[in-house]
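Record now logged for everyone:
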Amino acid sequence: MKFEVRSIIQIAVVASLVSVAGLPSVLAAQTADQVEAQAHESWSGTMHHLSAPGNGCFHASYPSTQWQAIECSEAPGYRSALPKPTKREQTVGNGSDYVVQAPSGSLLSSALGSFPTVTDVKTEKSVGVAAFGGGGILGSNEYTLQVNTNFYPHSAACAGFSGCFAWQQYVMSTNTPVSLTSNRLTGKTEVFIEYWLINYGSRSGSNVCPSGFIDGGADETGPGEDCVQNTPAVVIANGQLPITDLAELTLSGSATKNGTDKATVTFGTEAFTATVNDSLTDIASGWTQAEFNVLGNAGGSEAQFNSGASLSVKVAVTDGSTTAPTCVSPSAEDGTTGETNNLKLGTCTATGGSAPSILFTE
């Protein structure tokens, strides 16, 4: 019996030693994975802030930080719905969207949106909203990521017309019409910039939208026209990225006065960017707020998530300071998007330092 007990103990000790001996390699593997994850996150942040070598469409693959020129797709026939004309704002979830506000006297030059946590997100479908005529690109995995600017009333692009506002949207869409004259959909996920000059000109005169802009119809609140144009698009994926990939997606928009505007998406180990001259709206001269969220796909549609889905949303900004920005609360009814989602907004916190940001839940 003593021999049997001693043998059992020896076997247990040997097994324990074998287990402990294997532990350092497991920890080493975990550390290697953590280092790789940190390196990847750093690379993604670099690509969002790295200027492209010119105007056009570009791509890079991890770990390279060299933008390579690629062929642009035609400017898509995508159209966001303008926010409600009564307040130029639209709700997201059960209240207006959270917006990041730059400190007094500061202007934003970039805003980067991401989803640090994504929990129980299984399905999403874009549905029509009656208040916007039920339009949009509807169906499963039809959604957009949007970084939206504030409305800027003093833009040089407004050419002095009173009541004119410049507005800019940096958009990733999982599907877009191939052109304004065709309802055929690309079936591709793309990133581009949508430019607006709202209430431009005067219908009593002979003024028309500026060169390159399309007349989007009479403004509902003023005597002018709503003028819109899209940049050429960069194809991110041949197909619609499923909503279950949301945690791997980041979108940023940047604007440099007398320089370029840039919309950038990173997806996994790939980065894509589209750049054009900032002169189209001159938003860099008056960019003080930024909104980021996942929303319906165009036309005022709503992204409806499965029950139990929840997200945290981070918006990091560059404004030339280390001061914490402000979370503009939903009660202030801020946010400029015309699209929505069905998630309920939670709390929002702001952080300063080398990367000022806000973080909220929904």
